[in-house]
Amino acid sequence: MAMLFLSISASAYDFEVDGIAYNILSATSLNCEVACVIDPTQTYVTIPETVEYRNREFKVVQIGAGSFLNSQVEAISLPESIITIESSAFEGSKINVIELPKQLTNIKDRAFFNSNIKTLRLDFTSQCEIGRNAFSDCDSLRTVCVGENVLLHKHNFNSDGDRMYGVFKRNANLLKVDIEGTVKVLPAYTFHDCHSLQSINILGTVDDLEGCAWTEALDTLNVAGHVNNLGTSPYGHNDATIPCRTLRIMGSVTNCNGPFTNSLTYADLNGEIGYLGGFIGCSMIEEVIMPNTITSIEGFKNCTSLKSVVLSESISSLEDRMFEGCISLRDLTIPPNVRIVKTGWPWSATGDMGSGDLVVWELTSLTISQNSENNLISFASRGTDTGCRLRELL
């Protein structure tokens, strides 16, 4: 048994150079990977781009699985020759300073899980796939910057429905995320249980920002770049929300789907927006001013604190019951070219209004810009006090 143990230990790596152990990946291509650091007390390590073994030069292309597992290394310098960081390579390590090579194509599952990394920049020359829980449970992580060519792994559910595999799951002290490059999908539960996350700033482009990409209410979601779909429902889950207190769209959003949660208190919509939705039930928001790029809206049903709405001049029609339950709404500005649905009393308060009603509780200021002859505003007869007040306003 002792001889067998010694044999296994001796073959744990293929060769060693300057205190770093390596495994040969290909004797033909002369590629190798880092296997481990021989001295467990080392705190700073420099990985060379090439190493010589038996009069042959090997290229270091990979950080091997578990190579720095629970190690004392605090800082590491990696060469641009590295294209893969294998599973659990730095899991549980004290690593806190690392600059990731731009040539990386894979950062595999749990690569930096529970490490001491403090800041992180992901920016690559070609597509780099980030694996499950690659940067999860990193309590020292404060900021994340996502540059170009980043493919974030989508979450999975276990048999109990637990959100298992968010790339940045449970980073308890993560404060800020900047997305500077082009990201195809920001998947649901990417930032699950990041309780301290304050802001996500989209400075580049996100094609699909899935609902529940984070699960705690941000202070600010800032869109200064472009989002094609802001809020998509992954795997058909109806609870896929966009929780934030302040929404700022200064760039452009093709489809603002939401749904936003009742934590939303302020929306600054000065950018270019095509479709505006997701505000139903946002009970804390008080004012909405729409940019004139918006051509279609879902409505503001049950936005109980909403006091003032200025509609976009590009909107041509208002849909059924779009202000139902807006009990605080007092000021509504309707621009030219808006066609209001004719089937029923559009603005009244309560009661059985029919399927085609636009409902407002006690509107006291209704501004309707000059409409063309082809447009129609219809108010059905109703003998309520609210209805009388509205007729007086008109």
Quickly describe the structure.
The chain has 2 helices and 31 strands. With 394 residues, the chain is mainly beta. Strands 1, 2, 3, 5, 6, 8, 10, 12 and 14 form a 9-stranded mixed sheet that branches. A 7-stranded parallel sheet has the order 11-13-15-17-19-21-23, with no helix packed on it.
Features:
single chain, 394 residues, mainly beta, Leucine-rich repeat, LRR (right-handed beta-alpha superhelix), 9-stranded mixed β-sheet, 7-stranded parallel β-sheet, elongated, disordered C terminus
Descriptive report:
5% of the residues lie in helices and 32% in strands. It has 394 residues and is mainly β. It folds into two domains: 99 residues, Alpha-Beta Horseshoe (Leucine-rich repeat, LRR (right-handed beta-alpha superhelix)); 281 residues, no CATH class. The strands form six sheets. Strands 1, 2, 3, 5, 6, 8, 10, 12 and 14 form a nine-stranded mixed β-sheet that branches. It is elongated.
Structural class: mainly beta
Number of helices in the DSSP assignment: 2
Q: Spans of 5+ residues with little confidence (pLDDT < 50)?
A: 1-11, 158-162, 342-361, 370-394
The structural domain count equals 2
Helix content: under 10%
Shape: elongated
What is the arithmetic mean of pLDDT? 82
Layout: helices, strands, pairs:
Layout (H helix, E strand, L loop, with lengths): L1 H9 L4 E3 L2 E7 L4 E7 L6 E3 L3 E4 L2 E8 L11 E3 L6 E2 L11 E2 L7 E2 L11 E4 L5 E3 L12 E4 L3 E3 L23 E4 L2 E5 L12 E4 L2 E6 L7 E6 L2 E7 L11 E6 L2 E5 L9 E3 L3 E5 L10 E3 L6 E2 L10 E3 L6 E2 L12 E4 L4 E2 L24 E4 L16 H9 L1
Parallel strand pairs: 3-6, 4-7, 6-8, 7-9, 8-10, 10-12, 11-13, 12-14, 13-15, 15-17, 16-18, 17-19, 18-20, 19-21, 20-22, 21-23, 22-24, 24-26, 25-27, 27-29, 28-30, 29-31
Antiparallel strand pairs: 1-2, 2-3, 5-6
